[in-house]
Each structure stands twice: as structure tokens, then as C-alpha cells.
Amino acid sequence: MAVNLPPQYHDAEARYKKGKTPEEKLAALREMWVILPKHKASEKVQADLKTRISELSDEVEQAKLGPKKAAPGSHKVPKQGAGQVVFLGPPNAGKSRLLTKLTKATPTVAPYPFTTREPVPGMMDYEDVRVQLVDLPPVTADHYEHFVTDITRAADAALLFLDLADDDGPAATQAVLDRLKQARRELVRDAAAGDDPTTYHLKTLLVMTKADDEAADIRRELAGEAFADRYPSVVVSAEQGGGLEEVRKAIYDLLGVMRVYTKQPGKPADMTSPFTCPIGGTVAELAGRVHKDFEEGVKSARVWGTGAFDGQTVGRDHVLHDKDVVELHL
Ligand SMILES: Nc1nc2c(ncn2[C@@H]2O[C@H](COP(=O)(O)OP(=O)(O)O)[C@@H](O)[C@H]2O)c(=O)[nH]1
Ligand SMILES: [Mg+2]
After folding, report:
1. 301: helix, coil or strand?
2. Which pLDDT value is given to residue 67?
3. Ligand 1 center from residue 203 Cα (angstroms)
4. Which of 63, 126, 149, 277 could form a cystine bridge with 281, CB 3.0-4.6 A?
5. What distances in angstroms separate CA 296 from CA 45, 244, 265, 293, 320, one per listed residue?
6. What H or E segment, with its residue span, contains residue 49?
């Protein structure tokens, strides 16, 4: 669909291109955002603009912190698997313990706070896919590692922790949200919902930990009032193992991906390692996952799986479904 952009938009875009400092560029981008018609046809332009504004806001902010804290990339965790999910929460909430239960990673688990200082990644198995989980240092009103700002942008989703063994759990979790907001990071139910372009929105699952605590049920009811409307949630006891399977599934669901198995003509499908792409993805998008040159090159596909599809030939814009088997024709 074509987007009709008013002339003022193009004027602002020209100022953006001519801008010499990040501040000038950011000002022009914000003008473009205000002018841009917000409707279905402009969704892609809106999304691109939001990303550019959010990235440039970070850059301007980091420059203010000075070169030392802005050291780029030092805490990057290269993505693996179907998606990357970061752990955000107050100290002592059971983040590291949960990571040891869901993956083979071995972060330090200790009854005192601030034991985790660096990102610790681990791979979680869920059926036939793997999801990358990343344990992070705790966040409080006064303690914030600046690399968390970068790492939350790179992530696909977040787990927000709430400690059911602590009367102050809800306040500590709220403090995490408040501190992240200062860094222009907002944890939300649906990443598409937020419309402040300077803030980066990350899809989030609330994980209520230490369900084995004797007062956990009461605290959960109280916390439910504060948080349950804002996020999907799960309750878990990493110590006793209760709820771990639900957590695995909820994390996978949070990613909003589907599995697609590929096959070569005349050969059986490889049912062991599916490709994952966002729910609603097309044949062309899948092809791009298989090889970056295939997205342009794919002409049609045969699809087995959902409903009527039993080897039918479909076009490149055909929408795929979870567990479809696809033979790409280039
Ligand atoms: N009772 C109970 N204690 C837990 C549970 N999960 C973690 N803990 C304890 O809580 C403390 C902090 O755990 P840790 O994973 O290091 O917290 P982090 O700071 O959020 O990474 C440790 O003493 C853990 O043994 C749980 O499910 N039940
Ligand atoms: Mg920890």
C-alpha cells in the first residue's frame, strides 16, 4: 500500500539528512514522527521511524554519559536459537536459580544480592526448538549497569521477576520498571502498542518466583492486583520444580514465532531442526531465513500441513502456519 506523505514530512526528512549532529538529526526525526499519518498503510514507515528515533535517543544519551560508560559492545551476547529473552528483576528474586533449572548454564546462585554482574546466557530446550535466555545483573532504584540498556534493545523479549517470598517484592519489581523507564525502556504486554517513539518497548512475561514460600499465595493475590493486568504471568518454584514446564511454554509463546520444516524436492522433510519465523510470516520470509538471497529469489513453494494444504503450490506471499512443511522453489 502506498503512503501519502505531506510535503512538510519531506521537508523534515531533508533536515534529517542534512543534520550534522545527532541532536539535529533527532529533532528532525521527531518532526517527521509528528507529521507522519498514523494508519495501517504507514505501519512499516512508523516502525522504521520509531527504531531510528529510539536508537538515536540512546546515542545522544550515551554521549552524555561520557566515553567510558559508553564503551560499545563489551557486553553483547550474540543471538542463538529461536529468540533471545533477557532476565530483568530485583536482587535475590531467583533469576539465576531459574536459569540453572531451564538451561545448562551455571551462574552463581547465592542468598545475598548483586551476585550476578555480567550477562550469563544459556540455551533452553522447548520441544524441538531452543531459546536463548540471558541472566542479567539486578536492577534497583540505585543500581543499574548501563550495558542493560543496550542488551534490552537487542533482545526479543524479557522476563520480569517478582519474588513471592518477599513482602517488598511488588515494590522491588516496580522499582525495576521505573529504573528501566529512565533508560527509555518500557516492558509491555504487546511491543506494537507503545506510541512514544523515544522509548523502546520490549514484550514481557511476569515470572513470580519462590511459589513454595508459605505466604506465596497471599502475596500472589496482592501482586496480581498490581501486575497481572499488565503482563501475562506464570508462577514457579525453581527450588521444588513446580511450574517449570509452564514457564518453558510461556517463554516460547512470548516469542510469537512459529516452526516451519523445510524439505528438498523428492526427499523427506528434515523434522529435527525447524526454522522459526514470526507468526504470520510468508513463504518469502521463510526463504530469507534459509538463506539471505532466497527472500528475493523464491517464486513459489509447495506446502504440507495446515488444513487443505497437502502439497499444494502456493505463491511467495502465502502465509505459513506452525508446523507446516515447505519445499521452496527458487
Ligand atoms: N524457597 C525458594 N528459594 C529460592 C527459589 N529460587 C531461588 N531461591 C533462593 O533465593 C536466593 C537468590 O537466588 P538467586 O537465583 O541467586 O537470585 P538472583 O539474585 O535473582 O539471581 C538463593 O538463596 C536461592 O536459593 C525458589 O524457588 N524457592
Ligand atoms: Mg543472580
Report:
1. strand
2. 61
3. 24
4. 277
5. 21, 41, 20, 6, 17
6. helix 43-65
Same domain, yes or no, for 229 and 262? no
**Are residues 126 and 235 located together in one domain of the fold?**
yes
Whether the Cβ atoms of residue 86 and residue 158 lie closer than 8 Å to each other: yes
Amino acid 220: pLDDT:
93
Q: For residue 198, what pLDDT is reported?
A: 85
Antiparallel, parallel or unpaired: β 257-262 and 275-278: antiparallel
Report the alpha-carbon angle 102-203-100, nearest 5: 15
For residue 24, what pLDDT is reported? Answer: 93
- Residue minimizing CA distance to atom 1 of ligand 1: 210
Four-point Cα dihedral 138, 139, 142, 145, nearest 10: 80
Query: CA Rg, the chain, in Å?
Result: 22
Q: Which residue type does 160 have?
A: L
Q: Which of 88, 92, 135, 207 to mutate to test the pocket of ligand 1 (most atoms within 8 A of CB)?
A: 92
Residue 111 pLDDT: 78
**224 and 88 fall within a common domain:** yes
| Per-chain mean pLDDT for the chain | 90
Below-50 pLDDT ranges, the chain: 70
- Note whether 96 and 107 are same-domain residues: yes
> In one letter, which amino acid is 124?
M
Q: How far, in Å, is the centroid of ligand 2 from the Cα of 240?
A: 18
pTM of the model: 0.87
In a domain, 307, yes or no: yes
Structural domain of 116: 84-255
Distance of CA 176 to the CA centre of its chain: 17
| pLDDT of res. 225 | 79
